[in-house]
UniProtKB/TrEMBL annotation, chain A:
Name of the protein described by the UniProt record: Tripartite tricarboxylate transporter permease
Record has NAD as a keyword: no
Keywords: Membrane, Transmembrane, Transmembrane helix
Membrane spanning stretches: 20-39, 45-69, 108-132, 147-179, 258-281, 328-348, 354-374, 386-405, 470-489
Automatic annotation (TrEMBL), chain B:
Domain of life where this protein originates: Bacteria
Endoplasmic reticulum in keyword set: no
Cross-referenced InterPro entries: DUF1468 (IPR009936)
One Pfam family of this chain: TctB
Protein name: Tripartite tricarboxylate transporter TctB family protein
Keyword Ligase: no
Membrane-spanning segments: 43-69, 81-101, 121-142
Residue ranges of domain DUF1468 in the record: 13-150
Keywords: Membrane, Transmembrane, Transmembrane helix
Length: 499, 159
């Protein structure tokens, strides 16, 4: 029973006083900032990333993971209470959750979200513990062609599963890769796309890019419709679920958990797709589909469980393969690299305390969320009423000091300002910035493995198709692209993303 | 012209992507290409620039021919220029000011300038937020986290 030994090791790391504190601070800060309207997990993590630099790697990662589920959880709270999903994975929660709140059942909706998330988080953590080690063993057998194929599959999947135009998303991935190539060439050291700017010799600062696009860009977008942002929140009461409620949510929670766990592992799938899928499945199999959209508790239970499970299992490709499946994981990889850890299959075997400590802390973090959130809901509700014109200058301040302190460089601050503008323009043109960030992170690895693979094969590109694992993955990528580009699927897909 | 362009948004996106691709291709033109067996630093970027231009072309053509779904114009005039400019200026001022003036003044100015971007700006609240944020960053970042940043920079008598 190796898994129990591993989990025991994990819990011994995670239960150290210091790590418990960092987990708690992470969950608390994540919820605090995630509750603020318009701030999802990505800007929250980007903003708080710098405060983890001084910590030891395990503590830093535990804290960041805590910030992640805290922020995600905060997003559900705003979705339910004021119909303003903090991030895309809470969009479906808002449909029935907000209706419940309007009927005076906000407490029940919040309790359902909390309990469903906790159940899903526990199951997904266990799955992570079971599947991560064999996956990383498999990944150790990967050669450059397999890695290359896997990354292509990951990028394609992230495009195929995203909403909006497929071609534009592909273009964003490519643009991201190009931006990621700025700096020195890995093999020859030749400077590329540095425009003779000294600060670009090591490439574009990742945190500055992420914070510009997701932090500053988002602020500008929110200021666009400043007049329409008024927040009305009622008092929340009745956090206890009735027997009937419990009976109704068990099925959706379990189904949502497994669906989310599965989709979370897929690159690019993650939390967003799983919450959409879980909602539509529940609606389809429900005996009373007419309830949905009018405050059905199942419509809160299923997507909330699914997105939490997906969020948890999306750590699997990041921790075992070193490949991020969504922008949050890209930020985590950034954090690992800053800590001097190269993410990849070796992390599981070479740094078991780091790996298992993070896994165990996920369970603890989820538990803390339930304990912390339900009694404190009054505090979070008060936070929701902070007007945006007071909030955003403070966020700008945090972004500035956060980016600057990464390596005490004002150039990063200017980079952030530039990418804030670029991010705003991209959103205006209906181009999603998330694939750009993924491309940016994966780009340099993609190039390195491509060049290595070609060296090994002596310039023969068929190497990608003669090796079974690599051929399968590339085949899947082509298949996924072909499917989303088919006109009939495209129409269905648009419908699906239209709530 | 308007009838010819079905989706101005897609046409603009397509053109922008093609221009960007051309820019990367031009910048990468001097890099050694190498051969497939031993790719030079220029190989991968050039392939990507080609790919980006190709996607740009598809979006462009799509915007000219179909594009019924997103036919709305890009109303540049209705962009929140005030917010765009003021927030960018605030961030830039922070970058320029942090070394010579120190964290306090840079932070205060950045928060104050960005608060101007709101339609609900009042002088009092702007100053108040700036002061709160300066106090907060002193307490958290300098005292709490020990970031190596002086509150007042060398130009203001700090170290």
């Amino acid at each position: 029973m190796e898994i129990f030994d591993n989990l025991a090791l994990g819990f011994s790391v995670a239960f150290s006083f210091q790590n418990l504190i960092y987990c708690f601070i992470g969950v608390l800060l994540g919820t605090l900032i995630g509750v603020l309207p318009g701030l999802g997990p990505v800007p929250t993590i980007a903003m708080l990333l710098p405060i983890t630099f001084g910590l030891p790697p395990v503590a830093a990662l535990i804290m960041l993971a805590g910030i992640y589920y805290g922020a995600q959880y905060g997003g559900s709270t705003t979705a339910i209470l004021i119909n303003l999903p903090g991030e895309s994975s809470s969009v479906v929660t808002a449909i029935d959750g907000y209706q419940m709140a309007r009927q005076g059942r906000a407490g029940a909706a919040l309790a359902t979200a909390a309990l469903g998330s906790f159940f899903a988080g526990s199951v997904a953590t266990f799955l992570l513990a079971v599947f991560a080690p064999p996956l990383s063993d498999l990944a150790l057998k990967f050669g450059p062609p397999e890695y290359f194929a896997l990354m292509v599959l990951g990028l394609v999947a992230s495009v195929a599963l995203a909403s909006g135009s497929v071609i534009k998303a592909l273009a964003m991935v490519v643009l991201g890769i190009l931006l990621g190539l700025s700096g020195q060439d890995v093999y020859t050291g030749t400077p590329r796309f540095t425009f003779d700017i000294l600060e670009l010799a090591d490439g574009i600062e990742f945190v500055a890019l992420a914070m510009g696009v997701f932090g500053i860009g988002e602020i500008i977008r929110n200021l666009e419709d400043e007049h329409s942002r008024t927040v009305m929140v009622q008092k929340v009461k009745g956090l206890l679920l009735s027997k009937d409620d419990i009976k109704r949510i068990i099925g959706p929670v379990v189904r949502g958990t497994f669906l989310g766990s599965f989709l979370g592992i897929l690159p690019g799938g993650g939390a967003v797709l799983s919450s959409f899928a879980a909602y539509s499945i529940e609606k389809r199999i429900s005996r009373y589909p007419a309830r949905f959209g009018k405050g059905a508790i199942e419509g809160v239970a299923a997507p909330e469980s699914a997105n939490n499970a997906g969020a948890q299992t999306s750590f699997i490709p990041m921790l075992t393969l070193g490949i991020p499946s969504n922008p949050v994981m890209a930020l985590m990889i950034g954090a690992l690299i800053i800590q001097g850890i190269v993410p990849g299959p070796n992390v599981v075997s070479e740094q078991p305390d780091l790996f298992w400590g993070i896994v165990a802390s996920m369970w603890i973090g989820n538990f803390m969320l339930v304990v912390l959130n339900l009694p404190l809901i009054g505090v979070w509700v008060r936070l929701l009423t902070v007007p945006y014109h007071i909030l955003f200058p403070l966020i700008v301040g945090f972004c500035c000091i956060g980016v600057y302190s990464v390596n005490n460089n004002e150039f990063s601050v200017y980079t952030m300002a530039l990418f804030g503008f670029i991010g705003y323009v991209l959103v205006k043109l209906d181009c999603e910035p998330a694939p750009l960030l993924l491309g940016f992170i994966i780009g340099p690895m993609l190039e390195e493995y491509l060049r290595r693979a070609m060296l090994i094969s002596r310039g023969d590109p068929t190497v990608f198709f003669t090796r079974p694992i690599s051929a399968t993955m590339l085949g899947l990528a082509v298949f996924a692209l072909a499917v989303v580009l088919l006109p009939s699927v495209r129409r269905k897909r648009e419908e699906a993303f239209k709530e | 012209m308007t009838r010819f362009v079905k989706s101005p948004k897609d046409v603009a996106t397509g053109l922008l992507l093609i221009v960007t691709a051309a820019f990367f291709a031009w910048q990468g033109a001097d890099l050694p290409m190498g051969r497939a067996i031993k790719m030079g630093p220029g190989y991968f970027p050039m392939v990507l620039a080609g790919l980006l231009a190709f996607f740009g072309l598809i979006v462009l053509v799509g915007g000219l021919t179909s594009g019924a779904a997103q036919g709305e114009p890009i109303n540049v005039r209705r962009w929140p220029w005030r917010a765009l400019i003021l927030v960018s200026v605030a961030v830039t001022v922070f970058g320029v000011g942090i070394r010579p003036f120190g964290l306090g003044p840079a932070m205060g100015l950045a928060v104050f300038i960005s608060s101007l971007a709101s339609h609900r700006f009042t002088f009092g609240s702007g100053v108040a937020m700036a002061l709160v944020m300066v106090a907060f960053s002193w307490a958290v970042f300098i005292k709490g986290l020990g970031l190596p940043l002086p509150m007042l920079g060398p130009w203001l008598g700090g170290y």
